[in-house]
Every structure is written in C-alpha cells, then in structure tokens.
Amino acid sequence: NCWKTRTGSSELSTLTALAEQQPFRFLVTSARGLVRRLVPPAPLAAASRQLVLGQSIDLEELTATLVAAGYVRHAVVEDPGGLAVRGGLLDVWPPDADSPVRVELSGDVVAGLRHFDAESQRTGRTIERIWLPPVSEILLDRAARERAGAELRALCDAANVPSGKTRRLLEDLIDGHSLFGAEGYLPACHPLVTLWEYLPERALF
Predict the structure, then answer these.
(1) Neighbours of 67 (CB within 10 A)
(2) Which conformational region is residue 135 in: left (phi greater than 0), alpha (psi within -120 to 50 degrees), or beta?
(3) How far is Cα 19 from Cα 17, in angstroms, rounded to an integer?
(4) Which helix (DSSP H) or strand (DSSP E) does residue 154 occupy?
(5) What number is the average pLDDT over the span 65-75?
(6) pLDDT tens readout for residues 26-66
(7) Nearest-angstrom CA–CA distance, 69 and 6
C-alpha cells in the first residue's frame, strides 16, 4: 500500500492506518507535517472498525461507535462520513472511500457488502470487507472526557468565561462533538504527539 498525507478525512484515515500498524511502502509528507501536533495513535486505532462477510455484529453498538467516531446519522447517506440504518441495512460511507457501502444483515450476521451509488441508491459490486476509520479526531473515552472537562473548565475560569457559556461548550464538545472548529480543542482532550509517534522504529527517512 502507498499512503499519502492529505487534508481532512483522507489525512485522518492515513493516520488511522498508521496507528493500526497497517503495512505501507512509503509515506509522503512535509517538514511541517512532521512537527504538527496530532491526537495519539491509540484513540484512532480503538475507534476504527472492520466488517467482514459472515461476521456477527451488534448493529446498535456499531452504530453508536461510529457516531462517537464522528459519523453523522442521516435518513439517506449522501456524503462521506454519513451513515443510515433502515431495518436490516446499514449504509455507511467511509471518509477515504469513493462511494458508500450497504451492509446487509441476516439477523446479526453480515450477509452482504455492496458499494452503491449515492444519487440513485442502486447497489453495485460486492466486496468481502470494509474498513471504517474514524471521521473526527475528537475521540473521547472516559479518561479523555474527564481530562477535557477539567482542562476546559480551568481555562474558562482563568478567562472569566460565564458559567453558562462554559457549560454549553462542554456539552457541545464532549457530548455532541458537533462544535465548529472542535479540533482546536484537541490539546485539552489528549496529550498530543507528532507524526514520529506513528512511524515504525526501523523506518527510513
């Protein structure tokens, strides 16, 4: 595989692949990219999911996991990072994919995986597996929630931010993850690292 850093979701997918220690031949980035502060690898690896034909899943748990990873639930999937649940069907569009995938369930078992056209909703070719990396860098387990809450309360207190605004900020960021520019609050959520932390010890530069 060849991974190339790009902006937005594609870059996050690349980081997730590195966090999972997926094999790659080379990585193209810039000097600025090497020193940029990033979310640590562990939360990205923990937030990604892979579905395989014949696999048993808990649809409710999977949906909650994807929403926590930044996927947005809609009635119909039309854009990358979206998902929709209709009966025994899960439609999901991975952020690094060219088209969405329809997951067909028979009970709790993945019975079918098919790409489909977002406009016509017609299914196409069958695949055997689908990789679902996170869409957002705001990935908060219990420890990260506590850290973010404490850090942001302290900063808001120091800046004399009204308690009502502080409460809304915490609700939007920690509970909803929907705050515009939420990535700017990453230092409050995780001890950030650089790209060096993602790379194998034997990597050549």
Answers:
(1) 14
(2) alpha
(3) 5
(4) helix 142-158
(5) 91
(6) 898 888 888 889 999 999 999 999 999 999 999 999 999 99
(7) 19
